[in-house]
Amino acid sequence: MNNWKYIIVFLFAAILGVSCSKDNGEDKGQEGTGDNTLVTVTPDRERIFLKNPLSGWVTYSGIGSGLADNYWDFYDNLPCADAPDGSGEVSVWDYSNVLYIKADWADLNPEDGVYIWEEQYQDYSDYARRLKILMDGAKERGLKIALTVNTNSEDDHDNSTPDFVREEDPSSCYATTTGSVTVYSGYPDHPVFQKYYEKFVKALAARFNNPDEVEFISGLGLGKWGECHTFRYSTETTIATGDDSPKEEVYDWATSLYADNFTRVPVVTNYHKFVGCTTGQGSTGDPDSEGLLQSAIDKGFSMRHDAFGMKNSSWGYGQWERNFIAARRYKVPVIGEGGWVQSSHDFTSDYANARELRQGEYDEMAGAYVNMMDFRYSSSMSTSETYSWFNDAFDLVLQFLREGVYRLYPNQIHVPESVSAGSTVTLRSRWANLGNAYFPANLKQWEGRYKMAYALLDKSTGEPVRVFVDENAALQNVVKNSMQVFDTEITLSDVPAGSYTWGLAIVNTQKDNVPAVEIAVKEENLAESGWFRILDVTVR
Q1: How many other β-carbons are positioned within 10 Å of the β-carbon of residue 194?
Q2: Prior bond of 535 cis (ω within 30°)
């Protein structure tokens, strides 16, 4: 009878992806932890989509007139020939949990003191109505949002800088022509521009500095397309002889403005070789760019690049960018965006077809160890980048979720099966990362938000009775091919005698220590509360 019981327990453990043995201090050279039992965990490589912070695919949208009326319907039922269920359709939200909303400053803040996200202005304009549609739709689908704001009107048919800036002081703005339309952009070094932009960013942060709703803010909104290159400053004498002497002061002002106001949500800015410069192309980068970018990183900025896959050495993603981000691997998270727009660009100088284009973008982003990739939007949605990813390269969509994003899990755990109430014990876990990206637990805006924790779980409900947070486990160091061992000393004070289950999770310390980062373990071994169930334990 005892033998049959042992076989049944062994088979159940194998199904759950865990196995147990007595810790004898001979764990591949690791020093043992007393009488603990060693639990070996098999990762779940089949569960594709882990909904984790600053991780995965970002789906684009915008509040401009190009937003299709059927945006949500189309993305809820996107045509995909290789749909896993054979239906020929997928919901994008089964693969992406962030909605990226692009907007111009003038649309969000059309009059001084008017912000269209406020309830009293939700019918103020078409832009306000579109913003509400997007935010409501994201909430209904359990998505977080990300925001980017552009102040530069070049290549647009409408002003991106609000008219009231120019109306107060005409010298604060300059004119450019898009087709036959004259548009105005603010000089970022001009005091009137800075006065109103500061007021706007503070109002934006008052509403969106909320990690429960917002994944990241993509600043700084300056320079051409908001990408921090091809600037024009008020010190220029002619366009041809543009002066970039204000760039360091402006960059310091703008990065401080965002970093000081978005204290709980990650802020992101572009890395490339022409930061703050009056040009955006050339074979040789500006010598000040690396230092400026590092100053942003030191303030807590994450990095992004918006021309992945573009091979032109003058204005594409080149060796300068590769070297810059390689030197900061696992120190700062990266968000990737492809450069070519399939519906409006001729990309055949780089790629023969759309499949090759998607592969080129994927490979370049993999080389940058990006945390997030892009499903970009086009008003012609059947020719959009999102449509292309799901129909020309669906295998790469899945590959990024399997191999690109961080996928942490504890492959070995040492815990006791019996302890005395009030005693102090040392628990050990060894963590691995199946993905290329790192988990940026060291982000300034997160302020120790995500920590590894053990719990004593109620055996019947799976709810934690007592939680023990490890304040010292540096989860950001758990990177691919570099496992980390964490020893956690806990004291079982105020724990009633009884039978429990050990639990392990990465918790949000700012939200009652609830599990907040999905780990790559088999779902059947997770309690409904989100804790990974390790082993039963008796508290004497």
Answers
A1: 19
A2: no
For residue 52, give the nearest of 390, 538, 440, 509 by alpha carbon: 440
What lies within 8 Å, CB to CB, of 12 at 6+ separation is none
Map tokens 């120019």 to a residue: 166
Helices (H), 209-246: none
Output the six-digit token pair for 247: 């760039």
CA angle 387, 388, 393 (to 5 degrees): 125
H-helix segments, 28-161 = 71-76, 105-108, 126-140
d(CA 164, CA 170): 10
State residue 197 phi and psi, 5-degree precision: -70, -40
Q: Give tens-digit pLDDT for 153-204.
A: 999 999 999 999 999 999 999 999 999 999 999 999 999 999 999 999 999 9
Location of structure tokens 């800036």: 165
- Interatomic CA distance for residues 329 and 16, integer angstroms: 34
DSSP three-state, residue 134: helix
Other CB atoms within 10 A of residue 511 CB: 11
Distance (Å, whole) CA 200 – CA 203: 5
Q: What is the pLDDT of residue 412?
A: 98
DSSP H helical ranges for 96-227: 105-108, 126-140, 163-168, 191-208
Could you tell me which residues are beta bridge partners of residue 99?
A: 59, 145
Averaged pLDDT of the chain: 93
Percent of all residues in the chain with a pLDDT value above 70, rounded to a whole number: 93
Q: pLDDT of 477-528, one tens digit each?
A: 999 999 999 999 999 999 999 999 999 999 999 999 999 999 999 999 999 9
**Residue labelled with tokens 């949990």:** 97
Are 57 and 400 in contact by the 8 Å Cβ rule? The answer is yes
Does the pLDDT value for residue 10 go beyond 90? Answer: no
First to last CA, the chain: 28
Cα–Cα distances in Å, from 136 out to 132, 139, 181, 196?
Answer: 6, 5, 33, 28
Confidence (pLDDT) at 426: 97
Backbone angles phi, psi at 261, to 5 degrees: -100, -35
> Worst-scoring range by mean pLDDT, 282-286, 333-337, 340-344, 527-531?
340-344
DSSP 403: I
Write down the residue that tokens 């076989």 correspond to.
7
